[in-house]
Design brief:
Layout lengths: L2 H13 L2 H8 L3 H15 L4 E4 L2 E4 L1 H26 L7 E6 L1 H18 L4 E6 L3 H9 L5 E4 L8 E15 L10 E2 L8 E4 L5 H11 L5 E5 L6 H6 L5 E4 H9 L3 E18 L5 H17 L7
Parallel strand pairs: 3-4, 3-5, 7-11, 8-9
Antiparallel strand pairs: 1-2, 5-11, 6-10, 6-11
Helix pairs in contact: 1-2, 1-3, 1-4, 2-3, 5-10
Length: about 300
């Protein structure tokens, strides 16, 4: 089976069009299309439905996709095994995480890893939430994911690497009397900026409202990077992670911890199958880093 054809197939499935896949692979679209046709002839089945300017996987394509990813990953691993004879001087690690976790803790992990292994290339696939990041790892689109919920799959291995705390930030000038720790009940009547349903911070807001605390959502935004600027403009308060709260506080926002504390574990996940040498090094590095930064006992 032509490995280049498999690469064209996987890239087209990920991109949703032959044009975008060709651009990503720096090949001409006719060459990519012909490679796909050869693969379809060899397998005696169509792999894509051509829909307008895009493509959608057929049933056969859906079956082939995870196997094709595994074959290409095994090829990468074979190449890296040869490199390993001279030490970890190359390799490629594919990562995925929701936006918030890409900032903290993933950015620090990547920065420290690059210091130790500058020859390893890292690529990051965006995922709107933890479920999509988990699916990307299960489908072999990525080798490693950073998620905020432990996945329930025997095909995945999960390691706790961090613990994030939820805090509340309010506009500048909210008052010098704002305590450094505040009960949820004390937020009654406040206007809130919220991310979309499904996020950790939105879950905190929803659970508070369901318990009878009057928190008014005045702005709902899918753009998490807009939350802090909206707070700084005086639009309302917001629940954010502690790292975001610290940065917002530097810009003038009032930040308070919640009492009792609300926190959650962050997991590094990967498939239970053997990792490439570079990915295994990344996992070992992340676990070593977490052992020096995580609290020794869980917060209650």
């Amino acid at each position: 089976m032509d490995l280049r054809g498999l690469q064209y197939f996987v890239s087209s499935a990920d991109a949703g069009s032959f044009t975008a896949a060709a651009e990503a692979l720096y090949v001409s679209q006719p060459s990519l299309s012909e490679g796909i046709r050869r693969l379809e002839r060899e397998l005696a089945t169509p792999l894509f439905h051509r829909v307008g300017k895009g493509v959608v996987l057929t049933e056969s394509g859906l079956v082939l996709l995870p196997m094709a990813r595994n074959l290409l990953r095994d090829l990468d691993e074979a190449r890296e095994a040869m490199v390993a004879l001279k030490g970890l001087q190359g390799g490629h690690v594919r990562l995925t995480s929701p936006p918030g976790l890409s900032v903290d803790p993933l950015a620090q992990i990547v920065g420290r890893f690059r210091d130790k292994y500058p020859a390893v290339t890292l690529s990051m696939l965006p995922a709107e939430d933890g479920n999509l990041a988990t699916q990307a790892v299960l489908s072999a689109a990525c080798e490693i994911g950073i998620v905020d919920r432990q996945p329930h799959s025997s095909d995945l291995v999960a390691h706790v690497i961090a613990r994030n705390e939820i805090m509340v930030i309010s506009p500048p000038g909210t008052g010098h009397e704002e305590p450094t720790q505040i009960p949820l009940e004390a937020l009654t009547g406040r206007s809130f900026i919220s991310s979309l349903p499904g996020t950790r911070t939105r879950t905190v807001l929803n659970e508070a409202r369901e318990s009878g605390i009057d928190l008014r959502i005045v702005v709902e935004t899918p753009h998490r990077e807009a939350v802090v600027p909206l707070v700084l403009e005086g639009v309302g308060s917001a629940f954010v992670t502690s790292s975001v709260a610290r940065e917002a506080q530097k810009q003038g926002a009032v930040a308070s911890a919640l009492q009792p504390q609300i926190s959650y574990d962050v997991y590094l996940i990967h498939r239970s199958k053997p990792l490439t040498r570079a990915a295994a090094a990344f996992v070992s590095h992340a676990l070593l880093l977490s052992s020096t930064t995580m609290p020794q006992t869980p917060e209650t």
